[in-house]
Amino acid sequence: MSDSRSDFEHVVRTAAARLPSPGGGDTWARFEALSQWAAQDLSLGRLVEGHSDAMAILAEAGMRPAEPGATYGVWAARSPRRGTTARLESDGWHLTGEKPFCSGSGLLERALVTADTADGYRLFDIDVARQVVSTHPDSWQAVGMADSYSETLEFGGPSIPPHHAVGGAGFYLARPGFWFGAIGVAACWYGGAVGLVEHLGRTLGAHSSDLVMVDFGHAVAHVEVMRRVLEDASKEVDADPTDKDGRARARAHVVRHAVHHGALRVLEHVATAGGARPLCHDRGQGQRAADLYVYLAQHHGPADAQELGRITLAARAWN
After folding, report:
1. 140 contacts 104 by C-beta, under 8 angstroms
2. CATH 2.40.110.10 given to domain 74-169
3. Crossing angle for the helix pair 27-40 and 177-203, nearest 10 degrees?
4. Lower Cβ count inside 10 Å, N or C end of the chain?
């Protein structure tokens, strides 16, 4: 990103503020907008997706942002060493511990942060300047997604007011919107793939060899399939915004699986079609490829595939 803070803040305060709600009847417009920002700059798309997801979560909880107009993110990763916990005392909730992959570190004004509590897993709307007490040095060394600023943070500081607890214990993972948001991330993966293919297309012409066009055609086909998968999923979300049919979890796993695999194929075909030169001599295209590869690495492919298999077996009786 040329200017991470100003680009992100500009999008959040203009176009992102008008995004349709997931399940509100125009979910594809939401996912398409996220994909377009991701195609422009995948780190920007990641940050806007986090802010937009935070707004959707607060709305689902029947709450408003603690600071109207503030930039938000959702910090829900778990630390393999020492997690984040919160305890309720007479003056409010006290948040402590560490959390990795806090995208927007140093850019966000507020964040929705998950923590373990005595009565379960909870979500809190925090003031970043007050509750983040330190940043782990050199905790974000990434080349891909470098501008997402996803550092490991340490929490502490003054208490969080009780009314800044978002929903009850278990709310964050149990709500239908958790799975709608998971598809929103896939929309950003798709956008990253679109950015790669569109840039490659601008470099090709009548002189391009048949072999190059073969790989370009494969990449275009994968992008089109991903778009159709996301569009169809959006229609299903709008048709059942409260997940009465219980398909939200399985649907999200299918979409993420399809988009993840399609985006990996796009990376492969773009690299084969262009060779090393555009990835090494064109900083923008090299950054797009690195960004997409790192962002796709967050996918819990084997675990999600196993869960999808079990969900499917439980729902269908095959002889």
Report:
1. no
2. yes
3. 40
4. C
